[in-house]
Amino acid sequence: LDISKSVQTTSSAIGMVNSRAENDPVPVVALNVILRIKPEVREEFLKVILNNQQGTLNKELEPLALEYTFGEDASEPNTFHFHEKYLGEEGIAA
């Protein structure tokens, strides 16, 4: 599915948390994405991205995912902002 007109991504460590198994700190990594989609695929995009969000937040499928939120830009139609948080770089890679 060719949905995007442009993509902008940034990733950074935003803090540390104690791991669940030990008291060793684990970095929390955030991923921020701006995605501009083609208007003609908007409805299909929304269905796909909602499914993706549910899968990411399912602890059985992605136990290192902490947050996955998105919304449409208030002033630019078909421009979506995503914010994801994971435990460590391995969380993003999963």
Write the layout of secondary structure elements.
Elements: E1 4-18, E2 25-37, H1 42-56, E3 65-72, E4 79-87, H2 88-93
Antiparallel strand pairs: 1-2, 2-4, 3-4
Structure report:
A hairpin with a 6-residue loop joins β3 and β4 (79-87). This protein has helices spanning 42-56, 88-93, and strands at 4-18, 25-37, 65-72, 79-87. It starts with a strand and ends with a helix. It has a four-stranded antiparallel sheet with strand order 1-2-4-3. The protein has two helices and four strands, in the order ββαββα. By secondary structure, it is of the alpha+beta class. 22% of the residues lie in helices and 48% in strands. The chain is elongated and about 50 Å long. The model has no long low-confidence stretch (mean pLDDT 83).
Short description:
The protein is of the alpha+beta class and 94 residues long. It has two helices and four strands, in the order ββαββα.
What is the helix/strand order?
EEHEEH
Q: Mean of residue pLDDT?
A: 83
- Which structural class do you get from the secondary structure elements? alpha+beta
Distance between the termini: 21 Å
Taking pLDDT < 50 over at least 5 consecutive residues as the criterion, the unreliable ranges are none
The strand count comes to: 4
Percent in helix? 10-25%
The radius of gyration over CA amounts to 15 Å
